[in-house]
Amino acid sequence: MPPDRRVLGARLRTIDWQPPSTIVIIDQARLPGELALVELRTVGELIEAIRRLRVRGAPALGVAGGLGVALAVAEAEREGWDDDRLARAISDLRHARPTAVNLVWGVDQVAGHLDEGRDTVEEAAISLVQRDVDTCVALAERGADLLSELLPGRPRGLSLHTHCNAGALACVEWGTALGVVRSLHRRGMVGNVFVGETRPLLQGARLTAWELHHEGIPYEVVVDGAGPGIIAAGMVDAVVVGADRIAANGDVANKVGTYPLALAAARHGIPFVVAAPESTLDDGTPTGDAIDIEQRPPDEVVMWSGARTTPVGAGARNPAFDVTPADLVTAIVTELRVVRPG
Amino acid sequence: MPPDRRVLGARLRTIDWQPPSTIVIIDQARLPGELALVELRTVGELIEAIRRLRVRGAPALGVAGGLGVALAVAEAEREGWDDDRLARAISDLRHARPTAVNLVWGVDQVAGHLDEGRDTVEEAAISLVQRDVDTCVALAERGADLLSELLPGRPRGLSLHTHCNAGALACVEWGTALGVVRSLHRRGMVGNVFVGETRPLLQGARLTAWELHHEGIPYEVVVDGAGPGIIAAGMVDAVVVGADRIAANGDVANKVGTYPLALAAARHGIPFVVAAPESTLDDGTPTGDAIDIEQRPPDEVVMWSGARTTPVGAGARNPAFDVTPADLVTAIVTELRVVRPG
Each residue of B54-66: pLDDT tens digit? Predict the structure, then answer.
């Protein structure tokens, strides 16, 4: 199937600003069954959308943080908030999800302009949207260059493994890890993409599969436990994932289930490549040990579409992320550079 | 909650022979919602039950293979089959699932008595049932001894990680990996058990959680991708799993998702212990590379309780097992010995 750019790409954005004071998002909790746009008019609605993963993915959360400040300023004006109330709303937004450094980054980028008036705040927020598009394309092309160089002479195309969704749906358009896949596909270099389904919320099965389907890129969904065995069987040329936060030493926090892929990639000598914008690099966090891992509700593990998968009363632990140590990371590709922590 | 031995243990068996010619199983596809006993009266019904995982787990499949030969002999007598028809039925049973060496083993144990008449065949089959119970208890005690020795001085009890179901429900009673957990629990030595949910069929979430719940052993279900991160966070003292087939060099085929736990255990220096009966050791298979990995239907991955989790038309790959190389295995515990391949 040819890329359907009416569905995702140049025309439709994962998150965007609709003047004078609305954020429009694709509701990702309803994909792949339904493509629904949702308008958010208050900071409270935005925080709720972030918590429920209607908007998700590190870069998109950065944009959401920036646009959220503009939303807060508009809401403050409309509701007659004082500065304290506005500051509290922005602080609540900044902490809507603990692990995503991009959210904090996006909020801070725009909040720095608060003294310069509503128009400047809005301009700063909108500029983040375009900057994200430019960033994704730049890092995707750089990542495609790197993989072409690391893995020459694959006439039937590369076999890649990705996890979760670091695609257009995690950004404004194009994507990070999946942006690399898109850029490689444009060059005719993708043979197959293994997609980890990404329990508990199935961002791989629901979102990444949806994007690949629309781009006409061959893919196979696998359960998360299968990735390392598939790598061991020699079926994967490289692992390409996004990141939610990268510590100063190169340790990478990403969706839970990433670390096992890195362990397997290292053991079997294939590249483990992280594609993420510079904003994901957190120099204030020395190592992965200092990264606060979000613990999500047990119900995401023990329930499925309203049905219980475990005995009544079963407990569950639900960390949203894991940390891949720097020595297992072949390269971190950003819009500016290739870092090789390993 | 105290162990409920009326529900599982001394009184109720996962699989048993009901004279003159019926196999009775707990239908594991209906757990944990419903505890249903099913009577199987033909080899065809037994093969169907094996393929649909109503009876599953390497040791239980060994017993199923043995009882299946007795069932075939009774069916042959009832239906007037000739020797060829009987041989074909036994061969079909032998190949009902490709990776489970125990099934073949169980069939062959009893088929060796075919020339000695129906009573002898039935006796041989029934003896496999009791032998499995004795085997499980012996290897469970040996495994508990080993872990006590490897991990001394844990006043709050051991924190263990298991995957899939190598419990009473995988055997006749008691279990292998979960038998070790049971034996440790009897000694007051279990602090917590992490249970990988085990996608796609959730044997961990459905079956292992059900068993631990009934034994009153504290546990937490986790998604399969979370195991390695939980090990990295220092929350696990040892990984204990079963096996479907162990090659002569000590490579271990077990439920898909086992290998990532072994990789993490090795990296973080905790024991990775395989608890399995001698019948799982396959000297005819030199290494894991020679193990035929069953590929199951893609629908198990892309559908969930009748609902699709992926876009329509999504492909999936669904290997049922992975292979953990011998160098990552701290110990293989059987009813007779402790082997240390690593």
Answer: 999 889 999 999 9
Q: Which residues of A touch B272 (CB under 8 A)?
A: none
Chain B closest CA to A65's CA: distance in Å? 28
**Predicted confidence (pLDDT) per residue in B238-248, tens digit:** 999 999 999 99
Q: Is the pLDDT of residue B5 over 60?
A: no
Give the torsion sign (CA, A325, A327, A329, A333): positive
Q: Contact at 8 Å (CB) between A296 and A318?
A: yes
Q: Is the dihedral of CA A48, A51, A57, A58 positive or negative?
A: positive
CB count within 10 Å of CB B13 equals 22
**How many Å apart are CA B273 and CA B243, to the nearest integer?**
10
Residue in A332, A51, A287 with CA at minimum distance from that of residue A166? A332
The answer to whether residue A244 is catalytic is yes
Instruction: Show Cβ contacts of residue B127 under 8 Å, excluding neighbours closer than 6 positions.
Output: none
Q: B36 — contact with chain A (CB < 8 Å)? A: no
Query: Cβ of B323 and A259 within 8 Å?
Result: no
What is the pTM (predicted TM-score) of this model? Answer: 0.90
Other CB atoms within 10 A of residue B325 CB: 22
Contact list in A for residue B230 (CB cut-off 8 A) is 317, 319
Give CA–CA dist B63/B126, Å, rounded.
9
Q: Which residues of A touch B259 (CB under 8 A)?
A: 228-229, 232, 264
Quick check: B318 pLDDT over 80? yes
The answer, for A10 touching chain B at a CB cutoff of 8 Å, is no
- The verdict on a CB contact (< 8 Å) between B225 and A257 is yes
Best A317, A318, A321 residue to mutate vs chain B (most B CBs within 10 Å): A317
Mean pLDDT for the stretch of residues A213-227: 96
Band (pLDDT 50/70/90 cuts) for residue A11 is low
User: If pLDDT is split at 50, 70 and 90, which confidence band does B309 have?
Assistant: confident
Which entry of A237, A244, A251, A282 is annotated as an active-site residue? A244
The ipTM assigned to this model is 0.89
Query: What would the mean pLDDT of A197-225 be, rounded to a whole number?
Result: 95
Number of residue pairs across A and B with CB atoms under 8 Å? 191
Nearest chain B residue (CA) to A235 = B317
CB contact under 8 A, B256 and A206: no
